[in-house]
Design brief:
single chain, Rossmann fold, 10 helices, five-stranded parallel β-sheet, alpha/beta
Length: 301
C-alpha cells in the first residue's frame, strides 16, 4: 500500500507545549493510527543536534510506512515531532512528499516555556543543579550557534512566529491549526473538539474521554538514576508495543503505569515556585513583544 493512500496529521511543535498529551489524545481516536513512537523525526533535516529516528526521508518516502502502527478502521496517520517547527527544509520535505496532510502547532507563553525547559534540563541532568535560571537564559541570549543542543535553544525558539511563517507560506492557513497551551491545559475537552473539527473527525469521542497530562517536568531527587530509569522505561515501552499481541497491550500498560506511578512518587518532589528576576522578565518581554503580536493573531479560538 502506498504512503499516500492515507491522510496525515503532524504535530509539528513546539517543545514543552503539551504535544505529548495531544498526541496521546489523538492516538486514542478510532479514526487515527499513530506512529510507533511519538517523535519519529522522519522529516528532520539536522538543523541542530537531535538523535535520528529509525527511518528518515533520505531512505525514501515509502519507508515512512514503517513508522506507523496498524489499526483496523483507521485511515488517518499521526505523528508528532515538535522540532519540525524549526526547520524550513522539513516543511518543504513534508509538502513535497505527502499529498494529504494537516499540521497542528501548539504555542505557549514563551517565558513560561523557558522556565519549563530549565526544569526539564535539570531533570535530565543537562545543566548543573546549581545553575540559576538567569544564568541559563543569559547563556542563550549571548550565543546560540548551529551546534547548540536542544535545551540551549529555549529562548530563541520562543519566537514562534519567525518559524510559523514558513509553514503558512508553504501550506496555506487552511492546512494549519495553531493552539495555545493554556487552551489545552484549562479546557482540554474544548481544545480537542476544536482540533477534531479541524481534522474532520468525530468530536463526540472526547465527550467521555479521560484527559491525563503527560510528560510533565518534575524535580527529581537524583538526576542520574532518574535518567537511567527513564531510558529503560522508554526502551521497554517501545519494544513491547511492537511485539506484544493486541489483547495483552491494555493489561501491560495498566501494570506498567502502576509501577511508573510508584517510582515517580518515591523519586520526585514538587517544584518550589520559580520567579524570574524582574529585570530579566522585562528583558524577555521586550525580546518577544513583536513576535507575540503576530502569533496571537493566528491562534485558533
Amino acid at each position: 500500500m502506498s504512503v499516500n493512500n492515507f491522510q496525515y496529521i503532524i504535530i509539528g511543535g513546539s517543545t514543552k507545549c503539551a504535544t505529548t498529551s495531544v498526541f496521546a489524545y489523538l492516538a486514542n481516536h478510532p479514526s487515527i493510527a499513530s506512529s510507533k513512537v511519538k517523535e519519529s523525526r522522519f522529516f528532520w533535516m539536522d538543523e541542530y543536534p537531535l538523535k535520528n529516528g529509525a527511518y528518515n526521508i533520505v531512505d525514501g518516502i515509502e519507508s515512512y510506512e514503517q513508522v506507523f502502527l496498524e489499526k483496523t478502521g483507521a485511515n488517518i496517520r499521526l505523528e508528532a515531532t515538535p522540532d519540525y517547527l524549526y526547520s524550513r527544509d522539513t516543511a518543504l520535505a513534508i509538502k513535497e512528499n505527502l499529498e494529504d496532510v494537516k499540521l497542528i502547532f501548539i504555542v505557549r507563553n514563551p517565558i513560561e516555556r523557558i522556565i519549563s525547559w530549565y526544569k526539564f534540563a535539570k531533570q535530565l541532568n543537562l545543566i548543573l543543579a546549581t545553575e540559576t535560571i538567569e544564568a541559563y537564559i543569559n547563556q542563550q541570549l549571548n550565543y546560540v550557534g548551529n551546534d547548540a543542543p536542544q535545551h540551549l535553544r529555549s529562548v530563541e525558539q520562543g519566537l514562534y512566529g519567525k518559524y510559523l511563517k514558513h509553514y503558512f507560506e508553504i501550506f496555506g492557513k487552511d492546512k494549519i491549526c495553531v493552539l495555545d497551551y493554556e487552551q489545552i491545559s484549562s479546557n482540554p475537552l474544548k481544545a480537542m473538539k476544536s482540533i477534531a473539527d479541524f481534522l474532520k473527525i468525530d468530536a463526540a469521542f472526547y465527550e467521555s474521554y479521560s484527559f491525563e497530562v503527560l510528560n510533565k517536568s518534575v524535580q527529581v531527587k537524583d538526576a542520574k538514576s532518574f535518567n537511567t530509569y527513564r531510558n529503560l522505561r522508554r526502551s521497554l515501552r517501545r519494544n513491547f508495543k511492537n511485539i506484544m499481541p493486541t489483547f495483552l497491550k491494555a493489561p501491560f500498560q495498566n501494570a506498567f503505569k502502576k509501577v511508573d506511578n510508584m517510582y515517580m512518587e518515591r523519586n520526585t518532589t514538587n517544584y518550589d515556585e520559580l520567579i524570574l528576576e524582574p529585570t530579566m522578565y522585562a528583558k524577555l518581554e521586550r525580546y518577544y513583544e513583536a513576535d507575540q503580536v503576530w502569533v496571537k493573531s493566528i491562534i485558533k479560538h
